[in-house]
Known about the structure:
alpha/beta; six-stranded mixed β-sheet; four-stranded antiparallel β-sheet; binds adenosine-5'-diphosphate
Amino acid sequence: MEDLILNVKNLRKVYGYHTEQEFEALHNINFQVKKGEFICIMGPSGSGKSTFINNISTIDLPTSGLVYINGVEVRTMSANEIGRFRYKNLGFIFQEFNLLDTHTMYENIAMPLSLAKLKSNEIKERIHNIASQMNIEHLLKKYPYECSGGQRQRAAICRALINNPKIIIADEPTGNLDSVNSSELLKILQTLNKEEGVTIIMVSHDPLIASYSSRLIYIKDGNIEQKLEKKDLTQEEYFQKIVEINSLESKEILSQ
Ligand code: ADP
C-alpha cells in the first residue's frame, strides 16, 4: 500500500464526548486516497464534510480510529510535531481565502515558510516563482483588500503551494468566487494535479466544480453514502452522474 497518501481506518468523531450534548458526527469511516488523486467530497449541509476534512488533515483529532498521512499516523506525533508535519505535508485553501489584511500579499504567501528555516533569498525566489505562475507577481506589495477576489484566491493558492505540499486540502475553494474565477481556479487545481501529481481533497456542494475531480464521495449523516469514479467518463458524463447522485439524495431527504 505504498502509494497511499491517506489511509483512514474506522474514523469516529464525537463532539461533546461524555457530556449530555454528545453527538457522533462521523461513524466508523474507512477511506483511502492514492498519490495523485483528485477527490471531491459532497453531501448536504451538516452531514459531516468539514468534520471529516478537519480530521483527515490534522486540524482536529478523531475520537477513535487511525489517520495515516503519507504513512505517518497522526496520533503518534506530539502537538509540536503535528504542527511541523502539517506545514511540511499539507496546503490549505479555504472559501474565505483566510489572508491577513494587515500583511502584504508577499507576507501572506510567505507565512507557511516561517517554520521552514530557509534563507531570505530562497524565500524571495520561491515566492516570486509561484506568484508569477499564478499571475500575481505584480501584486506582491499590495494588501489583500486592494486585490480582487480571484487575485486573493490565487494568493491563497500560492500560500498553499509554497511548501510543495503532498496534499492540498480545499474546503469550498470557489465559494466566494464568480463563475469565471471559479473555473480558472479549478483549471489551476487540475493542472497541479495532472502535471505535478499533487493530491487534492476538495469539499464542494456544486456538481460542476465536483466534475473536475477524479473521484467523488458523498457523505450523509456521518457516513460515506455514495462513491463515484470518473475513470473513462468525459467530464460531462461524470457531471451528469454527480447531478444524479445529488438529486437522488435530495429526493430522499424531501421524502423523509
Ligand atoms: P458539514 O460540513 O457537512 O456542513 P459539519 O462537519 O460542519 O457538517 O457538521 C456535522 C455535524 O456535527 C452537524 O450536526 C454539526 O452541528 C455538528 N458539529 C460540527 N461541529 C461541532 C462542534 N464543534 N460541536 C458540536 N457539534 C458540532
